[in-house]
Amino acid sequence: MTLEPAPCDLLVKGDLILTLDAQDRVISSGAVAVADRAIVDIGPADELHTRWAPAEMIDGTGRIVMPGLVNVHNHTPLMVTRGMIEDIGFAPMYTPGIPQGHWLTEDDAFALSSLGMYELLRAGCTTVVDYYRHPGACARAAADLGLRAVVAGRVHDAEPAALTTGRYEYSRAVGEASLRENAELIERWNGHDGGRIRCDWAPHAPDTCSDDLLREVSRLAERHGGNIHTHLCQLPLEVETVVARSGLTPPQLLDKLGLLNERLIAAHCIHMEPADIELCGRAGITVAHAPIGNAKGGRIAPIIELREAGARIALCTDTSSGDLIESCAGPSPCSASIARAAYSTRALCWTGAHEREPGRSGSETWWARWRSASVPT
Ligand SMILES: [Zn+2]
Predict the structure, then answer these.
(1) Which end of the chain is flanked by fewer CB atoms within 10 Å, N or C?
(2) By CB neighbour count within 10 A (0-12 exposed, 13-18 middle, 19+ buried), where does 3 fall?
(3) Domains and CATH numbers, the chain
(4) What residues pair up with 130 in beta bridges, in sequence order?
């Protein structure tokens, strides 16, 4: 007896299906069936055609079907600075003469965040960690676009205007306003659409938050659960400021205040002494690594050392949104060289899926090179 194909919502076909499952299966000429927003079947396309009658079909001939990319650190409203900050070598919040977050209205932030998230989606990123001023606008943009997002506010009590002139003025009012914004975000958006939107706490950085504010965030985050997002050892100025203020390096300060643990996702981690690397590794933090963004500022993070010390490494574009692969180690000779020189990996230097190696399809060639380039040597 032949069974009738069962109805499903979507069937996606591709030259290669990268399952990234426990067996790391790669299926040639495969397909993925989706019903009720969940993957219900993966296998050879001709087999799935006998099992499923899709309402919609996407023909990915010549393409790879794979899980969405995850961008672990971004600020989509900073699309407003595109073209202004790429070569300044300093983070936008510290830089005079460029648009600042506190200048944006809620509507501005929503429009900019929508644009940034649309770019991420177009480039294969389906999950983003996004935190900035007007975080409710970021959450609304992700909710509207169908992106999975972890959103947080930008908590700090350093006066932004003073910061752009190199001065640190900690203001209780600024701190309380940013705490309130993050708390309201969690109240309104955490768990939206079956958990597609989640919300966390995000102290901006150890230098832009006073010890008291960091202590308060630590307490609130402990009660909330989830992860904590921050910038860590991004700039020499940050390290110098924290050492002068507390006598501790930024990782030591976060450790003292209960923030340095496996729930911390820390962007950059560039200016670290060996003892800081050891401490971060032992704590099991996740490093949000932005290789090309760092390199544009003339900086290289000790990523291999951090990983060997025990930290987890994840990729991000930070500020620039756009294409995660291009932003991390794209096909340009420059970025490939950075990957090779700085991270001791075989460089990510494929030239495109249209190029074929003997006995391999274009997609198989791409995948083989990607896997080869991704394995540290
Ligand atoms: Zn950032």
Answers:
(1) N
(2) exposed
(3) 6-65 (2.30.40.10), 69-329 (3.20.20.140)
(4) 74, 151
| 57 CA → ligand 1 middle, Å | 38
Q: What is the pLDDT of residues 229-277, one digit of tens each?
A: 999 999 999 999 999 999 999 999 999 999 999 999 999 999 999 999 9
pLDDT digits (tens, 9 = 90+) for 306-364: 999 999 999 998 877 677 777 655 544 444 445 444 443 333 333 333 455 667 665 56
Alpha helices in the chain (DSSP H): 45-51, 106-122, 135-145, 160-163, 172-189, 192-195, 211-224, 236-246, 250-256, 274-283, 291-296, 303-309, 324-329, 333-343, 362-374
Say if CB 348 and CB 339 are below 8 A apart. yes
Evaluate whether 6 touches 51 at the Cβ level (below 8 Å).
Answer: yes
C-alpha 75 to ligand 1 mean position (Å): 6
Please give the distance, rounded to the nearest whole angstrom, from the Cα atom of residue 245 to the centre of ligand 1: 22
Cβ contact 214:254 at 8 Å: yes
79: its two tokens: 């699309």
